[in-house]
Amino acid sequence: MKPISLTRFLIQEQHAGHINADLRLLIEVVARACKTISNAIGKGALGGVLGEAGTGNIQGEAQKKLDVLSNEILLEANEWGGHLAGLASEEMDHSHPIPNAYPKGNYLLLFDPLDGSSNIDVNISVGTIFSVLHCPDGITEPSDEHFLQPGTAQVCAGYTTYGPSTMLVLTIGRGTHAFTLDREQGSFMLTTRDIQIPADTREFAVNMSNQRHWETPMQNYIGDLLAGKQGPRGSDFNMRWVASMVADVHRIMTRGGIFSYPLDAKCRDKGGKLRLMYEANPMSFLVEQAGGAASTGRQRMLDVMPTGLHQRVPVFIGSKNEVETAVRYHREFDAGQ
Ligand code: P6P
C-alpha cells in the first residue's frame, strides 16, 4: 500500500480531533523549512554554504554558514503564518516574538536549527530538532520566561535527520512516527507508524574521550559495559558515536541503544553539554512516545523545571531498561551503596 503523505497524516489527526489547524500548519511549515535546509545541505561544496560563518552564538560556539542559514530559513518560514506567538533558537540569545506586522497564534516554537553542525564539513549526518509549547494564556508578547515550561508541557516535538535519506520523526503525543522525504514529489511520506524502541540493548553511544572527566557512577556504568561477558552485565556491548545527537538518537529509534552525554569535569559548571529546551526535551518526548526513557541520570528529563532558555543538562536517553540501569548506578552511588 502506498505510504500516506505528512499532509494526509496531519489532516487525519486534525479530523480525529487530536490537533487543531494551527498546529497542523506549524508542523507543515517546519517540515517545508527542513526540506529547504536539506536541499542546501545536499549541495555541499557546490552550494557555497560550507565552512565557518565567522560569527559566534550565545553558546560560545563558532557558527557554521549552515547554522546561520538554517536558523534564517526556520525564522522566515514561521514568522508570517499566524500560528506562533514566539520562537526561540539555539542560535539566538533571546526568544523572538512574532512581529506585530503578522498575525499571532498560541504556540511557542523552539529549535536547534542544525544540530551536529561540526559534522557538516566532513559530510556526516546532521539534523534539526524542534519543540512546541502552548503560549501562556493572555500573553501576546512572550519573552524568555514564558518558554520555561517542563518537557511534559510539550504538545509536539520532532527532528529531521539529513542523512543518506532525509527523515522527519514526529510526535504529537500519540506515538512517534517516521516520514521519509520523497525528493521527486517533494513530500514527506509516512514510512514507520508508531515506532517501538526495544526495551533492552547491547549498544551504547558516548564520547569515550571524556571518560577521565566523568563522575564515579558514570565511570562504573560504562566500565561494566566495557567488561563485557566477563563483567557484571554478562554480555558484550557495541559502541557508536556520531557526535551528532540527531543521528545517534535516530539509530536508537531504529534499533535501540542508549545515548549519554553525562556531566563531566569540563561541562559540570554549565550543568552539562546538551541543551534542555531544544535538544533534550524534544528528543525525550519523542523517545518516551516510542516506548523508551530519558533521564538526567537523577531525574526524568521531562520533569525538569527549566531555569534558563539555554540551560544545559546531562542526558541518558534510549532503550527503557538500559536507561533505568544507568539511573540505578547513579541512585546507588548517591545513596552511598
Ligand atoms: P562532542 C553537537 O555539537 C552536539 O551538540 C550533539 O549533537 C552531539 O551529540 C554532541 O554535541 C557531541 O559532543 O563533545 O562529542 O563533540
UniProtKB/TrEMBL annotation:
Boundaries of every Fructose-1-6-bisphosphatase class I N-terminal domain copy: 5-192
Binding site for Mg(2+) 2: D112, D115, E279
Note on cofactor: Binds 2 magnesium ions per subunit.
Binding site for substrate: D115, G116, S117, S118, N207, K273
Cofactors (names): Mg(2+)
First-level EC class: hydrolase
InterPro entries on file: FBPase_C_dom (IPR044015), FBPase_class-1 (IPR000146), FBPase_N (IPR033391), FBPtase (IPR028343)
Biological process annotations from GO: fructose 1,6-bisphosphate metabolic process; fructose 6-phosphate metabolic process; fructose metabolic process; gluconeogenesis; sucrose biosynthetic process
EC number: 3.1.3.11
Major subcellular location class: cytoplasm
Segments forming domain Fructose-1-6-bisphosphatase class 1 C-terminal: 197-330
Entry's Gene Ontology molecular function annotations: fructose 1,6-bisphosphate 1-phosphatase activity; magnesium ion binding
Keywords associated with the record: Carbohydrate metabolism, Cytoplasm, Hydrolase, Magnesium, Metal-binding
CDD domains: FBPase
GO CC list: cytosol
This protein's pathway: Carbohydrate biosynthesis
Self-association state and partner proteins as the record states: Homotetramer.
Protein name: Fructose-1,6-bisphosphatase class 1
Organism in which the protein naturally occurs: Arenimonas oryziterrae DSM 21050 = YC6267
